[in-house]
Amino acid sequence: MFQFTTSSALLILLGFYGATFLLTLRIGKKQENADGYMTANGSVGYGMSAASMTATWIWAASFYAAASSGYKYGLSGAIHYGFWGALMILFIYPFGRRFRKLAPDAHTLAEIMHARHGTSSQMILAGSNVVGSVISLMVNFTAAGALVSILSPLSFVQGVVIAGVGVLSYTLWSGFRASVFTDFGQLVAMILAAVIIIPMIFFQLGGPTLFETGMANLTLEQQDFFSTTAILEQGAPFFVAVLAYAIGNQTIAQRLFAVREDLIKSSFITATIGYGSIVIGLGMLGLLALLAGVTPIDGDLNNLIPQMAATYLPPFMVAMLFVMVIGSLSSTADSDLSALSAIVMTDVYGKHIAKNKPDPLKMLWVGRMTMVVAAALGVVFASLKLDILSMLIFVGALWGSIVFPVIASLYWNRVTNAAFTLSVALSFILFLVVRFSWLPIEGAVAVFFEIIAAVGGGVVIGLMTFGFFGRIAGLIVGVMAASILVFFTVGFLREYAVLLSSLTAYGASTIICTLITLRSKAPDFNFDSINQQVIKFHKEAEAEAEAEAKA
Amino acid sequence: MTTFGLTVYVLIWPVLSTLVLITLCSALVFDIRKAKKEGKSLV
Questions:
Q1: Which residues constitute the domain of residue A533?
Q2: Is residue A147 in some structural domain?
Q3: Cys-Cys link to A538, which of A33, A316, A343, A376 (CB 3.0-4.6 A)?
């Protein structure tokens, strides 16, 4: 298999990170302001925001997992990864518009929850995002280490350190503005590589004749475009997981707060098509490998894409693939650094330490120090190959549990802090019971969870309908979907623990949140008060300075 | 699915990606011109 020499691998990496760093010098300001550092002042245009949304949503694992899915499930495999991921970008935008309407100057979703409910709900969101983003950093740096060690004589740890230092170097000074600005170039590199690599490998493998010669390598299930196995093992669990990610993750929320308000819809529709076409396209490499009878090195499906590229492409194209993967993982890693800094700046320093009156300069340095610590943690966890990936299960479950309470809290003025917190906590515990079989999932216990999961399925479908067609349509479709699903889940879903537990989190949180809210006698919440509490920090600081000068 | 259909199924994604790339680059050029005209930063 082809390998770069040490010097050429270093040249590519230094060239990539050096060029990215030089790009950020074009937008760097001697005096950054805190709001620009976190959300680019909510004024990013269409091209930049659509590109940034796409680049952030695509991480290194998107390529590997899409190709693995194509290899494992055949014809429909890539679709069951890329299509659902893309759909969730589309799904989030109606809710994003609502977030922006309620709090035009927000920096984090946790900040809005603080204004709506108070500290506990804010900290559920902020805490889960801190853990989630550190894990994401670790995963992306791990992917860099793995790629570097496969395609060059450099070691895994050297690859991890280069990626960590490289990403930090260009994100540190200008924060989110640098992240968005560099996402564009990184996405262009990714698209160019995908556009050239996919057809090249296809024709290298024989072009259309590959389908005639290779179809025998597929099982009947893999040849079925509507494979039930692919839907139940890949499509449905991924769909449910990625929905939670879209609502709960700060990297997505941050882009919602950054794009110009009138451009949210167009940006997110473009990102939906962009993500779908790139990721499904690269997932096709897995299908092509299956048709060509390629066996992944060491039986590890993550090796499929580098292996296909190194076997069937000339060195220049392998370099393009190298840049594509490094670009994808860097764009996600810089988003995680920006997300973490925004959370610590806003939800820890701004809201709790400075009590909404932060010192802007100190706030910026809090953000920068957060980035340094987070990048160091990501590098250390990746280098030591610590098994913290399993924590992603907990973060995913927590985000699954918050989807309904977060959305309900921002549309329904009767939802209370107790309803939010208790529903999240209890549904999270129920998730754990199913996911880790704390109780034997059989008999009446299994039926209980399968009914809750049917409600969860109805919630997912109902919320999607609600986002686009309003409350009545959402309620009708959600109730109908849950009523139909119950006939399919009972006696069946117990065999699919991942899907059952995820849907349990959605269903349980919805039932508990709704029941507590309906029983509450608390006064209705005034949504206008959110805008009074969620403010631009630099304007606040300027106003105070002016007042002091006058005095 | 026919061989032709499968070929389209594999190759349609790079085509769509190209269209997205063209759209994004055009939008960026528009944004750069607008930012220059207004004397503002792009981000």
A1: 409-538
A2: yes
A3: A33
Check pLDDT > 90 for residue A537: no
Cβ contact, residue pair A46, B31, below 8 Å: yes
Q: Indicate if A94 and A212 belong to the same structural domain.
A: yes
- CATH code: domain of residue A174: 1.20.1730.10
**pLDDT at residue A545 greater than cutoff 80:** no
Residue B8 near chain A (CB below 8 Å)? no
Q: Residue A5: name the closest of A165, A154, A177 by CA.
A: A154
Number of domains in chain A: 2
Q: Are residues A363 and A457 in the same domain?
A: no
Top residue of B8, B9, B13 to mutate, by most chain A CBs within 10 Å, is B13
Residues A340 and A413 in one domain: no
A91 & A138 share domain: yes
Q: How large is the average pLDDT for residues A342-369?
A: 94
Is A287 in contact with B10 (Cβ distance < 8 A)?
yes
Interface residue A38 vs chain B (CB under 8 A):
no
Q: Which residues, given as ranges, of chain B have pLDDT below 50?
A: none
Backbone angles phi, psi at A441, to 5 degrees: -85, 80
CB contact under 8 A, B14 and A277: yes
List the single residue in A40, A195, A202 with the smallest CB-CB distance to B18.
A195
Two tokens, residue A531: 């805008």
- Determine whether the interchain pair B21/A191 forms a contact, defined as Cβ–Cβ distance below 8 Å: yes
- Greater confidence (A233 vs A545) lies with A233
**Is A316 touching B (CB cutoff 8 A)?**
no
Q: Helix or strand or coil: residue A348?
A: helix
Residue pair A293/A217 in contact (Cβ under 8 Å)? The answer is yes
Residue type, A465: T
Q: Do A50 and B13 touch (CB under 8 A)?
A: no
A357 and A430 inside one domain: no
Number of cross-chain residue pairs from A and B with Cβ atoms under 8 Å apart: 101
Inside any domain, residue A438? yes
Please list every residue in chain B whose beta carbon sits closer than 8 Å to the beta carbon of residue A184.
Answer: 24, 28
The residue out of A356, A389, A422 marking a domain boundary is A389
| More confidently predicted of A514 and A388 | A514
**CA-closest candidate to residue A503, choices A427, A423, A415, A419:** A427
Tens of pLDDT, residue by residue over A157-169, are: 999 999 999 999 9
Check if B5 contacts A (Cβ < 8 Å).
no
Q: Are residues A381 and A421 in the same domain?
A: no
* Distance in angstroms (rounded) separating the CA atoms of residues B22 and A225: 31
Q: Which of B17, B18, B28, B41 to mutate to test the interface with A (most CBs of A within 10 A)?
A: B17
Do the domain assignments include residue A544? no
Cβ–Cβ of A191/B16 closer than 8 Å?
A: no
- Shared domain check, A425 and A380: no
Q: What are the tokens at A541? A: 């600081």
Chain B contact present for A89, CB below 8 A = no
Q: Is the Cβ pair A273, B20 closer than 8 Å? A: yes
**A545 touches B at CB < 8 Å:** no
- Look at the alpha carbons of A347, A350, A351, A352 in this order and tell me if their dihedral is positive or negative: positive
The answer as to whether A400 is a domain residue is: no
- What ipTM was estimated for this complex? 0.96
3-state secondary structure of A259: strand
B42–chain A nearest CA distance, Å: 7
Domain boundaries, chain B: 1-43
A428 and A385 within one domain = no
Per-residue pLDDT reduced to its tens digit, A201-218: 999 999 999 999 999 999
Angle at A127 between CA A124 and CA A132, to 5 degrees: 115
Q: Lowest mean pLDDT: which of A299-308, A445-454, B6-15, B27-36?
A: A299-308
